[in-house]
Specification:
By secondary structure, this protein is mainly α. Helices cover about 65% and strands about 0% of the residues. It contains 39 helices and no strands. Helix 5 packs antiparallel against helix 6. The chain starts with a helix and ends with a helix. Belongs to the NRDE2 family. Pfam families: NRDE-2 (PF08424).
Length: about 850
């Protein structure tokens, strides 16, 4: 028992030594191979972990790792002095080790010599935002604006010394979105929203008469609209810059007072704050946090004077709520295509908590929205654990009053700007937002009131579908029919499905999507049924109806609705459907593989969706007629014929359309997993097939939250925490992303809460530290030491929550100081610590003031209220 670990350790060390020698040999032969140098740098983590003394402290290990990596990178740059990738890695590795301002000065020089490289700007902005010693909110915003102005000069051709990047505009949109999210996290929601309002007005509602005017002249004209009392984008009665200019809006609005949404009267604000003070008697820190959060939730829009009352800028009690044109005009730039304008609007909606589907695989950096997560208002899409885990939801969301009304206004006001597929996507966002708004109210409404709300949604959807341009829009009909099925009448939904399919062309992608939704509804293969443990009996009628739809989906003949009295699913029809699919599949695969070299993601999405819908329907056909094994065999065959991208670069989607193959493969894996879960819910069988399928899926897509959620379900039901920990350990060695750490932490939190609940049943309320709490600390330490995790406010807030819940003041204080050093821009970290009662309120607010955070309730005002 004592010798076996030594043998294993010796073998591992011997293997890493051979690998080290192999890297040296290959680099001597090919010293200009940048990818090989980067692999060698990454390998140092494994080399040090296997060769270092286990008794050495983490700090000494990190120092040793830094020295080795910096030495390797120095040699690599000597051989490849022009490599920006190597330089970026060097700056990242050395940022906390270089003395004084060396890192800052090196970054400034690097950006100055490469002003046209937007990737370098992105890394530089991240460095500036996370450098605690020099960080200030306003200073960081100025650097963001300087970056946008530099790229704008390249975009317009006024900066002649360098050539603009091919996708400069797309990068500018990404940088602008990051700046606004940064401001949102810092508590400056008014400024973040004003930036979006102005840029969207400039690009979506520009008067046609200004098409030939320079950007500077357009901004001068836009300033008159911005400073006028006319409602802005998203507010009630907003007409937009173009219509305001055409109708001389300044005279129109002076005649009729504007009604603003989201505005409380001073008396209402005073009542709210009086209640807050009463709820926290004697607790100054908790009162301050509650007041700060309350004002943020009520005053998140830029302050506008009520012209009906004769208010002007001088009447604003808090000047910080004012956002002047000069404060934000420096970040305005032009967008050339509707796709770019739609991306800008999507980013804004996502910041406002609208679930915007990601078009890329979860492996892609731009689809992983966790670097900025955890500010209390920005919930990454897809990261919602089971209903019993409220901790994460509480940290990721905040109750911003009237968000729903503002979002509805924003979408309805921008819909006329778009056409075709983009307009359809915006309608779908609008539909989903309406449904999400109603579903949030379900728990607080009676069944009658909830049903009335659903009927209101149904009326809105019908109104949209009655418009001439939408009558044949199958994607909108698909959403409406699915909504009717789950929240209305199934018979009514069947009529909608049948009517839409009757006039549709069978082989179109949208038609196949409609068939797919209809089949899922008949089988009960919904989001709820892909949760483990949702038991459901599969009736023969549901099976027959689904088979009829699958056969019809593979038939070129017109659709015939299902009739119980007729025999639709003859063996001949089923065989013909299978044969049609077998003939169509090679064509779909060939077309997908042939289109991966293009850059038009809309074409790729069309081809990929066609393949996915057909494979989905055929897998269900095989499942219903031949069993689960046949369906999984089809999945394996299809996956084997789609190329897997082995070399990965952090390139955004507009630079690498071939990344879309990853999205197709990930969705195919989700089809397999969901079908297995459905099978487990309608039959009694072993969960091993699901476990192996999830492990396979996570090997390829470790950031897929759906797979991790199901793994947690299995662990919760069978208590196999050791298997889950082993999977996390394996991914940790491969530089796990944030999703891995978040679900690892959630699993341990669940176990810790269960143990605590058991203790309380036994009459003990004392919070004990156990092996689970130690495991949690281990996960968090590994997570916040990783590059992504270190800059995630959400992870730090979870870690801080752990120590606070354990009443460990010393460790909580240590985590807080480390957290603000790593994420100095997150106002919510400061609020969490004050709310715990462990921090000195005066010292923390002094630090926030020094870093130029906006304090909505200064301590002097709070003292007067108390």
């Amino acid at each position: 028992e004592t010798e076996e670990p030594e043998v294993t350790e010796t073998q591992d060390a011997s293997w890493t030594k051979r690998q080290y020698e192999e890297f040296n040999r290959r680099l001597r032969e090919d010293p200009t191979n940048v990818d090989l140098w980067l692999e060698f740098v990454k390998f140092q983590n494994e080399f040090v972990s296997h060769t270092a003394d286990p008794e050495r402290q983490n700090i000494r290990l990190n120092q040793a790792l830094y020295e080795i990596k910096s030495s390797v990178l120095k040699k690599a740059l000597e051989k490849n002095p022009s490599s920006t990738r190597l330089k970026l890695v060097q700056l990242e590795v050395c940022r906390d080790h270089w003395e004084g301002d060396k890192a800052t000065n090196t970054w400034k020089e690097f950006v100055f010599t490469n002003p046209s490289n937007p990737v370098i700007w992105l890394y530089y902005l991240r460095f500036v935002q996370s450098k605690f010693t020099s960080f200030t909110v306003n200073g960081t915003q100025k650097i963001y604006i300087k970056c946008l102005q530099t790229l704008k000069s390249l975009q317009e051709g006024s900066l002649k010394s360098h050539t603009a990047h091919a996708h400069t505009t797309e990068y500018m949109i990404a940088i602008f979105a990051r700046m606004c999210r940064f401001l949102f996290q810092a508590g400056l929601s008014e400024r973040a929203i004003a930036f979006y309002q102005l840029l969207l007005e400039f690009n979506l509602f520009q008067p046609t008469v200004l098409s030939s005017v320079s950007s500077e002249e357009k901004l001068e004209i836009l300033e008159a609209y911005w400073e006028s009392p006319s409602p802005r984008l998203g507010e009630d009665n907003c007409m937009g810059w173009r219509q305001w200019t055409d109708s001389k809006g300044d005279r129109v609005h002076s005649a009729s007072p504007v009604i603003f949404i989201l505005t409380n009267s001073p008396e209402q604000d005073e009542e709210v704050e009086e209640v807050i003070i009463k709820n926290y008697p004697g607790n100054k820190g908790a009162s301050w946090v509650a007041m700060e959060r309350s004002r943020l939730s009520r005053h998140w829009l830029p302050w506008r004077g009520n012209i009906a009352l004769g208010e002007s800028e001088e009447d604003c009690e808090d000047p910080e709520r004012l956002v002047l044109f000069d404060d934000i005009s420096g970040a305005v730039f032009s967008l050339r295509t509707d796709e770019q304008r739609f991306q800008l609007l999507s980013d804004f909606l996502q910041m406002l908590q609208v679930d915007v589907p990601c078009t890329m695989s979860s492996r892609e950096p731009l689809c992983q929205q966790f670097e900025t997560a955890g500010q209390g208002s920005d919930a990454p899409c897809g990261l919602y654990p089971d209903k019993d885990v409220e901790l994460l939801r509480g940290l990721m969301q905040n109750d911003y009053a009237h968000f729903d009304a503002y979002i509805s206004n924003l979408i309805s006001q921008t819909l006329p700007v778009f056409s075709g597929r983009l307009k359809t996507l915006l309608y779908l966002l609008f539909f989903r937002h309406k449904v999400k708004t109603v579903m949030k109210q379900e728990a607080s409404l009676s069944k009658k009131d909830f049903k009335a709300k659903c009927k209101d949604c149904s009326r809105i959807f019908k109104t949209v579908l009655r418009e001439e341009a939408n009558r044949n829009n199958l994607l909108l009909w698909d959403f409406y029919a699915g909504f009717e099925w789950h929240h209305g009448s199934q018979e009514s939904a069947r009529k909608v499905f049948d009517m839409a399919l009757a006039g549709a062309k069978t082989l179109q992608s949208d038609t196949q999507r409609l068939y797919r939704t209809y089949i899922q509804c008949e089988l009960g293969l919904t989001d709820r049924s892909t949760t483990l443990g949702f038991q459901k009996e599969l009736s023969s009628e549901a099976k027959n109806r689904a088979l009829h739809l699958i056969v019809s989906a593979n038939n070129v003949m017109p659709f015939i609705p299902f009739a119980p009295s007729k025999s639709h699913n003859t063996s001949v029809n089923v065989l013909r459907a299978r044969k049609n699919f077998e003939e169509l599949l090679p064509q779909l695969l060939e077309r997908l593989n042939g289109e991966l070299s293009i850059t038009d993601l809309q074409v790729l999405a069309f081809v990929g969706n066609s393949l996915l819908h057909h494979v989905h329907n055929q897998m269900l056909l095989l499942y219903l007629t031949s069993g689960l094994d046949s369906a999984i065999q089809l999945h394996s065959m299809v996956v084997s014929q789609i190329p897997v991208r082995t070399h990965r670069e952090e390139a955004p989607k507009w630079e690498a359309a071939s990344f879309y193959s990853d999205k197709v493969l990930e969705l195919l894996d989700e089809l397999r997993v969901n079908l297995i879960v459905f099978h487990l819910n309608v039959t009694v069988t072993s969960r091993s097939v699901l476990h192996s399928s999830l492990c396979s899926g996570l090997d390829h897509f470790p950031e897929n939250s759906h797979f991790w959620r199901l793994l947690l379900d299995i662990e919760n039901k069978v208590g196999a925490i050791s298997k889950l920990r082993a999977i996390v350990h394996r991914h940790a060695k491969e530089e796990a992303g944030l999703v891995v750490w978040l679900y690892a932490a959630l699993a341990e939190f669940r176990r810790m809460n269960k143990l605590q609940a058991d203790r309380e049943v036994c009459g003990s309320s004392f919070v004990m530290e156990t092996g689970v709490t130690n495991q949690l600390r281990s996960w968090f330490e590994q997570a916040v030491s990783a590059p992504q995790g270190e800059r995630s406010p959400l992870l730090w807030r979870l870690y801080l929550h752990l120590e606070i819940s354990l009443a460990n003041a010393t460790k909580a204080k240590g985590v807080y100081y480390r957290a603000v050093q790593a994420c100095p821009w997150s106002k919510w970290l400061f609020l969490d610590y004050v709310n715990s009662g462990l921090g000195n309120l005066q010292e923390i607010t002094d630090l926030m003031t020094e870093k130029e955070f906006r304090l909505r309730i200064p301590l002097e005002e709070l003292n007067l209220l108390l």
